[in-house]
């Protein structure tokens, strides 16, 4: 081990994924010296094993599905996808798992990168053990931001460790198409990867413990996605749990709680996430290793004056874009406190309050059809004690939908707070709806009254005209 080096920074960031990068960007923009510590690739889970590779796999799947619904074009796209070309493009989109470009960006904003395992060693102190055994001690004048993200959580099943199951990482980085793939889970990772690999040539079986897919969205979202997966050739089984997994030669054998025996080449478990906090020294500051970190709306850890937890690790909204939003809020709060401002803007929707985490979290599921939602579902709003009304519209009734695709199938719902006549939540399901959701996010986050939305005129003929249909249905 080389001689220990001790350096003082204004801010130390643990984790160089999109969240850590955005914290560093905001603190550097405020003139604060910033160190970033990363044990893997700069760019993090999203860039190499989640958002980017999964969407690279899904884009040709969705484009082909859309083209097959367009008269005059449909007969040209009936063949199989070129799987090697799709996988090669996926490799390109993740820079072949090299982070030179991301490192260059960090350097460009003036942040110092330390490669290695970063661990807290008491208040405001982080030690870094580098890949070659070098050791650094970093001290933060103002803040340490934990941005280490989350990892896939595998269930405790007999025989699981011996079969080398896929997690989201293997599912997005696989070098070949498995002949038979079992997907365990019914959430976003499960549905997206089932969609991608079925279209690329796998025979996919989806095993869902609950009643349906995408249980955190409106029920019709999961129903339409399950229907489409089944039509594509996948076997979707709800109310089904895995009892055991083993390999017999090259064949993977799964036994369900109903006693069914299923065979496959690979199995993907998409059954939850765990915080990557088990080896970052939380015990040195009185916190539990491996735990989620509770924070206030400025993203400061409960009970601390200097520790922030941003992104997945705080368990508020496990989405890259939401983590980046939190990073912008946290960066502003860190800078304001470093400047000594007596009061921060921590009221709802203030500059230093991550209010959208509670009221306006958007998400797009890139299945066929796409499912997109923001804010509260009807059930969530009712459970919160709000006086609400749900308004539903069949998307196929919108002129733009019929032009977009022959036989377009989709649905939209808005949840209206009857006391304020503003929107608490919006859900769209159908081809191409992912690009609609930001308009809904603006309406929900902006608390735009129904009376004003009536004056937001959608262009004709677009799918966005669904907004007019929803408002007409509400007004009667």
TrEMBL record:
Pfam families: Pyr_redox_2, Pyr_redox_dim. Residues 361-467 form the Pyridine nucleotide-disulphide oxidoreductase dimerisation domain. Residues 9-322 form the FAD/NAD(P)-binding domain. Keywords: FAD, Flavoprotein, NAD. Its cofactor is FAD. InterPro entries: Class-I_Pyr_Nuc-Dis_Oxidored, FAD/NAD-bd_sf, FAD/NAD-binding_dom, FAD/NAD-linked_Rdtase_dimer_sf, Pyr_nuc-diS_OxRdtase, Pyr_nucl-diS_OxRdtase_dimer. Gene3D superfamilies: 3.30.390.30, FAD/NAD(P)-binding domain. Belongs to the class-I pyridine nucleotide-disulfide oxidoreductase family. This is NAD(P)/FAD-dependent oxidoreductase. It comes from Streptomyces yaanensis.
């Amino acid at each position: 081990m080389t001689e220990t080096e001790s350096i003082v920074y204004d801010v130390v960031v643990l984790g160089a994924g999109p969240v850590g990068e955005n914290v560093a960007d905001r603190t550097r923009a405020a003139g604060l010296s910033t160190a970033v510590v990363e044990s893997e690739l700069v760019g993090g889970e999203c860039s190499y094993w989640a958002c980017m590779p999964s969407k690279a796999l899904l884009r040709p799947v969705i484009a082909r599905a859309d083209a097959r619904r367009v008269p005059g074009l449909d007969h040209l796209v009936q063949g199989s996808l070129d799987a090697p070309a799709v996988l090669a493009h996926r490799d390109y989109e993740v820079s072949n798992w090299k982070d030179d470009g991301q490192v260059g960006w960090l350097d460009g904003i003036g942040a110092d990168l330390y490669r290695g395992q970063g661990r807290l060693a008491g208040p405001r102190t982080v030690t870094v053990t580098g890949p070659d055994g070098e050791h650094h001690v970093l001290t933060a004048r103002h803040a340490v931001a934990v941005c280490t993200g989350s990892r896939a959580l595998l269930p405790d099943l007999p025989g699981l460790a011996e079969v080398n199951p896929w997690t989201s990482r293997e599912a997005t980085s696989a070098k070949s198409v498995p002949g038979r793939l079992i997907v365990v889970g019914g959430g976003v990772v499960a549905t997206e990867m089932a969609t991608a690999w079925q279209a690329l040539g796998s025979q996919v079986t989806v095993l869902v413990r609950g009643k349906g897919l995408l249980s955190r969205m409106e029920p019709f979202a999961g129903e339409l996605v399950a229907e489409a997966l089944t039509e594509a050739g996948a076997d979707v089984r709800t109310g089904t749990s895995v009892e055991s997994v083993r390999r017999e030669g090259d064949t993977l054998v799964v036994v369900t709680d109903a006693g069914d025996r299923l065979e496959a080449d690979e199995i993907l478990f998409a059954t939850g996430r765990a915080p990557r906090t088990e080896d970052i020294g939380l015990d040195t500051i009185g916190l539990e290793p491996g735990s989620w970190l509770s924070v206030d709306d400025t993203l400061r850890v409960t009970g601390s004056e200097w520790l922030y937890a941003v992104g997945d690790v705080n368990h508020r909204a496990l989405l890259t874009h939401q983590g980046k939003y939190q990073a912008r809020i946290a960066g502003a709060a860190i800078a304001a406190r470093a400047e000594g401002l007596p009061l921060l803007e921590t009221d709802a929707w203030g500059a230093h309050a991550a209010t959208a985490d509670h009221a306006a979290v958007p998400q797009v599921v890139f299945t066929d059809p796409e499912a997109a939602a923001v804010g509260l579902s009807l059930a969530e709003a009712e459970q919160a004690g709000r006086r609400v009304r749900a308004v539903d519209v069949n998307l196929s009734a919108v002129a733009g939908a019929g032009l977009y695709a022959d036989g377009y199938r989709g649905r939209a719902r808005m949840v209206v707070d009857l006391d304020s006549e503003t929107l608490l939540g919006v859900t769209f399901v159908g081809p191409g709806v992912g690009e609609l959701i930001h308009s809904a996010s603006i309406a929900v986050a902006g608390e735009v009254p129904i009376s004003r939305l009536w004056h937001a005129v959608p262009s004709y003929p677009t799918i966005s005209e669904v907004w007019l249909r929803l408002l007409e249905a509400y007004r009667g």
